[in-house]
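**Folding the chain**
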Amino acid sequence: MSKLSPSRVARAVPIVICALFATVLSAKEVQTMIEDGRTVSLEFTLKLDDGTVAESNVGGEALQYVHGQGQMLPGLEQAITGLTAGDSKDVTLAPAEGFGDINPEAFQAVPLDVIPEDARSPGAMLVASDESGNTRQVRIREIQDDQAIVDLNHPLAGQTLHFSVKVLNIE
């Protein structure tokens, strides 16, 4: 059995470290990362600035979407690109990156008689449909004598969004 001289050990250590580092990198590369065209399953909680939970699926059914197909807020999609299953990330989106700023032109006066009686109060949420059958949520902003002012902005328009996301699966 030959003895290792200090110079042979010094030359061997970097080689061993490089081999270990390459093994770690190749194991990470084997994991599928979030990228365009991948079906992603997420668990998430969405909070507003005041800490209110606006939405969460934690403990429920996973949110599943195809990355890069416009099914997710672009800012959130960009922030989680490259994550792998099991990764978690907190993401904050300014209103412009989320559901937009409040558009003052998206307030509309409608006759009060088209609003159900039990929804004739500020803050009440309704589902409205257009001539084509498309539906959207609207909020009663104000009740006046014979009309209601409805807010056609997204309910989360003007809000900073705080997401806590956990990647459950990537296909």
The chain has a mean pLDDT of 87. The helical segments are 6-30, 74-80. The longest helix spans residues 6-30. The radius of gyration is 26 Å.
